[in-house]
Amino acid sequence: MTNSAPALRVPSEIELDRRLYRRRQNGKSVAIALVSTLVFAALVWLLVVNTPGWTAVQQSFFNLDVAISAFPRVIEGLWLNIRVLFFASIGVLIVSLLLAVIRTLRGPVFFPLRALATGYTDLFRGVPLLIVLYLVGYGVPGLGLFPRMPAEFWGTVALILTYSAYVSEVFRAGIEAVHPSQRLAARALGLSHAQTMRKVVLPQAVRKVTPALMNDFVAMQKDVGLISVIGAIDAVRAAQIETAASYNFTPYVLAGLLFVLLAWPTIRLTDWYSARMRRREQMGSIV
Amino acid sequence: MSSPDARLAAGPDGRPGMAPDTGIEPPVLSLRGIRKSFGDVEVLRGIDLDVRRHEVVALIGSSGSGKSTLLRTANLLETIDDGQVFLSGTDVSDPRVKLDAVRARIGVVFQHYNLFPHLSVLGNVTLAGRTVHRRGKAAAERQALELLDQVGLADKAREFPDRLSGGQQQRVAIVRAIATDPELLLLDEITSALDPELVGEVLELVRTLAQGGSTILMATHEMAFARDVAHRVVFLDGGLIVEQGTPERLLNHPEQERTRKFLTRFSGTGLTPPA
Question: What DSSP line would sit under B65-108, residue for residue?
Fold first, then answer.
């Protein structure tokens, strides 16, 4: 009797030979990669350690005792960064979606709105974040219109203003990437323009641009460190204070490491997500 | 054939001006002098067409003859340059009419299905019911499952469209179009994108709908199907209605030279008109 279960079928000689060859090639590649990485790391290490100023640099940038004593203050600052990041992200999502939708509105009635949104994105994509921070952090409170707010509040506002301009362009690209036939089908069912946007276009657009959005999120994660320039005691500012107290730059290195740790999960998640999307799109193909 | 049917006694074939007969029920769809241009190309050059309740009308004609454009003007997805569109007696080409409300009364099925990829089959079918017709989630889903069951797709309700075959997707698209009980169903070459082996299941569903009394206007290349299901076949060429009549008459004994010429291209289907 013949057994047709594919799992039990013995591959042909040729296939077995091919598998053996691929396994050997794989092993060889891994070995080469490993050795070359180790050699490169060793070379860089030797080069740095043998520079004439290394001992001095090690003392003032990589001092473990200074790092330990600065840690509580820097981590407290980082907590402020995380809170600012949280509120800024929500703000950016709302403002940028609004801007993107406004920019895709058709019809002469919406011209002023559209022009306003376009002007906004043009302006805030051009102005450096640092300048926006100064203007918002020192200028707006000076108007006397608003009750006294802490520096981190204005820092959050400045981040939202700048990043919304970028992220709205990402959303707009996503909205325009949804095929017109989807809109047609939704309108044919009797959905209004707004309903079509909300139920059909935006859900698909957001899926398309998620990797790009996450990338912008990573960029913002480190840019929250800039709010220190208007006086918020965040991780960067705390490191600065510690550095001034100890005449040692190690707190900056510590703050930098903590920012990397903060960003790292998002970075990996972005990579994983885009790889998954790519796999889905080219299922079964090698290239 | 069922040609002596009272609702088909619309007037002399091919002649414009079969005005909605006063006194009795107005046609579900009535097109009057529809004109439409894209740039310099005039795609529709004055179309008059009525579709009565429970009537199945097939539009035939070569690619570019204006079939799809005509269907799109019928539910105002395309603006018209001149003429009028009446839906059950109301002039819906009047700019004061709310288009969304009009479109909600017409079901459309597209050549490429146009299902929403981010929604499950059930989500696709219930979207209009829930957002436009404000039905409750439970009620909309119950009705959707019932319909899906009738077309043999109840087990696919939770699947996403990309997991279905073309024929299944198109059947879902049809269910989506009829889920809101539209007065009129527009089918735009709904089998053209399907593998030949999948055409049958879709046409079978349309046949069921036609027998169930749906009012259908369809553009099609399936001559055998048009002959089988349609009460009336309309031949479109160069943006004009060249000839129309019962499938029997139009497909077997076309009066116009252009119709004859078009139909000879389908000679393989045994529909060659006598020379």
Answer: SSHHHHHHHHTTSS--SEEEEEETTEETTSTTS-HHHHHTTEEE
